[in-house]
Amino acid sequence: MASKDKTKYVCGECGYETVKWMGCCPQCGSWNTLVEVTAAAQPASGGRRLGGNARAVTVGSVTERDAARTSTGISEFDRVLGGGVVAGSTVLVGGDPGIGKSTLLLQAASNLMAHGPVLYVSGEESKAQLKLRASRCGVDPELLIMTETSIDAIEAEVDRLKPRFLVIDSIQTMTAPELSNASGSVTQIREATTALTRIAKTNACAVFIVGHVTKDGAIAGPRLLEHMVDTVLYFEGDRHDQLRLLRAVKNRFGSTNEIGIFEMGQEGLSQVENTAGLFVTGGNDTGCAVTCIMEGNRPIIVEVQSLLNPTSFSNPRRVAAGMDTNRLMLLIAVLERRGGLRIGDKDVYTNAVGGIRIDDRGADLAVALAVAGSVFDRKLPESTAVIGELSLTGEIRPVDRLQNRVAECARLGYKHAVIPASSKLKDWEGMDLIRVRYLRDAFLCFIDN
Length: 449
Ligand code: TYD
Ligand code: MG
Hints:
By secondary structure, this protein is an alpha/beta fold. The longest helix has 18 residues.
């Protein structure tokens, strides 16, 4: 009986567990992905403690030092981490291959050496490749590197060197030797992450883990990893473009609103603190509108472009790049019903300039006016920014932190701002505030242009 209990089957795609083998995983529907896992292969961490003492303590008695943060020396990275790295924490950095994860962590590792020993482990590159990259990026030559894929060997080295920061590049190449599965399988990834979490907690060592992203956008070893670590960051951007965005999707030590902006250059990544001009074309064309979105505490000026084309499909196409397609469809419905525009026989394409992703209702009116401009074939007045949320009734709703947004528009030289009539903002020096109550009022901006 006991030996029977020791065997189970785990889906290599989604981590689904069952006691009986099946050809098709009932959770994710993939075929032939269930692999046998024996009890000996189960997380050994069950028996080991995550750092000590099983007594409850009062929260007040915990010293601040336990949550002290260390700067990575890259302020855009610190911003996303919530102010710096926390000792004993695990940070997962996910992203497409070639986006710059290794480069970012190599640069951060070099800076962190000022605060204690750092160990950079690569399971992907040879020492010579690491050296090449390190010298390109101006990394401190004293940085300790290791090319290893066995978690046990890494743990032994951690015991010897006692690093305060550990970088694992990447989790998919790591193997926990007691498992028979190939590296990269869900069980291996889970086991390796469990071991790394234990290493982090017992040594009060912060561990950065690189995770590759699968075709459908999840970190391979789906979701699974995200539960196990303290912070999950995604590094995104167009590979053919220099701009890279670092975004927190989970953070036990800070907000998940912040983004870090970087530029990939000849000498590695450099941070972009001033976003002026990054997400606008600078011109003023029909079908374009500039807005100001908030990414955490940071206002960012973004241009929305739209293109309309008579459709040759029975259902016209709605394609949104850098924004949610459902939101675009909703805005088109409002434009048709409340604005009286006819768009039903046209394909609509919209785009956020510069590869940024708009996830802010404050950009609604800008998207709507960009599309309306395409319909009217008219421009908005020069140097105009448009801010407001659109409700289903066609009313322009107020947005949060309008003041910060208008201030950013003024700072970057915009002269007119279309804002919701119901907002409390009084005047703004050097800025002509155009208050609009309904969508149709906003259409008046197109007159004379
Ligand atoms: P990399 O950090 O290896 O990506 P990842 O670890 O996410 O797979 O980044 C590799 C890309 O970055 C590669 O296409 C080359 C480019 N790159 C530069 O443009 N400049 C540089 O200084 C470095 C180190 C890389
Ligand atoms: Mg890499």
